[in-house]
Automatic annotation (TrEMBL):
InterPro entries reported in the protein's UniProt record: Pyrv_Knase_C_sf
Protein name: Adenylate kinase
Organism of derivation: Nymphaea colorata (pocket water lily)
Domain of life the protein comes from: Eukaryota
Amino acid sequence: ERVKQRLALYHGILPIYMDFSDDAEETFSRALSVLV
């Protein structure tokens, strides 16, 4: 949480928290659904 706040403050980045999976394809799919 602290990292997300610092990124937003110092770099103008909108941080998004996402759970990662052991399966790379599932993680990639989750990332796309969050971003779209």
